[in-house]
Amino acid sequence: MTDAEIIRLYFDRSERAIEETDRVYGRYCRNVSYEILRNSQDSEEIVNDTYLKTWNSIPPKDPPSLKNFLAKIVRGLSINRLEYNNAQKRGGGQLDAVLDELEGCIPSYDEKYEDGEQIRKVIDSFLRSLPQEKRRIFIRRYWYMSPISEIAEDMGVSEGKIKMILTRLRKDLKKTLEREGVTV
To answer: Among 16, 17, 49, which Cα is nearest to 30's?
Structure first.
């Protein structure tokens, strides 16, 4: 089924919408959640919550890309669960580390960026301009919140090299945002 056909099922309030969403995007949603949480049981719960939130959001929303719509929901719910789990452990862990790294290159809250569209476009353009390997490192770290050690191991390089690449990418992102008029 296409995204449009699945979205039509949501608008028709057909329970088949969730079945088709799971058939087409279930593995993807579980992977996104697992990459953040590293816990199969929590990830499965998050995916179920994602379907519920999608059911409650469509209609009135009519997303142009169901995959992106689901990714945003599953990622947000997974991050919330990670924060909750870390608060329970009094840890902080991966989420705090990632946020600390990004602190110097992401904009502070400003009403003119409230919808995030300008920032999203700049970051999308920035990512498209990167060589595939650097884009993959950036996304693994800042979208999936993978540990640096895991990225290094998967890519067959040292942690120091990954840290250096990420440092340079953050500096480049900050310059790109500022050049495009986004106050960092």
So the answer is: 49
- Minimum mean pLDDT range among 57-61, 116-120, 147-151: 116-120
What crossing angle do the helices spanning 132-142 and 159-179 adopt, rounded to 10°? Answer: 90
Let me know: does 140 contact 146? Beta carbons within 8 Å.
Answer: yes
Between the alpha carbon of residue 10 and those of residues 19, 97, 104, 168, the distances in Å are: 11, 38, 40, 43
Q: Are 63 and 7 in contact (CB under 8 A)?
A: yes
Q: How far is CA 131 from CA 39, 86, 102, 137, 160, in A?
A: 31, 34, 20, 10, 19
Angle between helices 40-57 and 66-89 (to 10 degrees): 130
Q: Where are the alpha helices (DSSP H) in the chain?
A: 3-11, 16-37, 40-57, 66-89, 93-102, 117-129, 132-142, 148-155, 159-179
Phi, psi of 38 (to 5 degrees): 60, 35
- How far from 119 is each of 9, 109, 125, CA to CA, in Å? 32, 12, 10
For 45-93, what is each residue's pLDDT tens digit?
A: 999 999 999 999 999 999 999 999 999 999 999 998 988 877 655 445 6
Question: For the residues 33-49, what does the mean pLDDT come to?
Answer: 93
The pTM of this model reads: 0.65
Whole-angstrom distance, CA of residue 27 vs CA of residue 22: 8
